[in-house]
């Protein structure tokens, strides 16, 4: 998985972040029920925690790019029902 997008060769600026990077951020958003600004902050915290120096997509980039991506979060059903006491 590449975090940064390859140069497209088309006119205009190429996207800075790959679809996989946007998909990762939107998956985090979906899993934790976050807003886009919160998602950006959470991913920045993860990046700092792991000592990475990569740039993180800002909320406007996520908003614009999520229109063209389908976020698919896989899940497995539990064998037992979850009960709260």
From TrEMBL:
<feature type="domain" description="Transposase DDE">
    <location>
        <begin position="2"/>
        <end position="83"/>
    </location>
</feature>
<protein>
    <recommendedName>
        <fullName>Transposase DDE domain-containing protein</fullName>
    </recommendedName>
</protein>
<dbReference type="Pfam" id="PF13737">
    <property type="entry name" value="DDE_Tnp_1_5"/>
</dbReference>
<dbReference type="InterPro" id="IPR025668">
    <property type="entry name" value="Tnp_DDE_dom"/>
</dbReference>
């Amino acid at each position: 998985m590449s975090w940064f997008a390859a140069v497209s060769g088309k006119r205009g600026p190429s996207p800075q972040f790959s679809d996989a990077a946007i998909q990762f951020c939107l998956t985090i958003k979906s899993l934790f029920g976050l807003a886009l600004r919160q998602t950006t902050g959470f991913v920045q915290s993860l990046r700092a925690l792991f000592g990475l120096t990569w740039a993180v997509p800002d909320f406007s980039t996520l908003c614009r790019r999520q229109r063209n991506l389908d976020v698919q979060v896989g899940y497995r059903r539990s064998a037992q029902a979850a009960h709260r006491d």
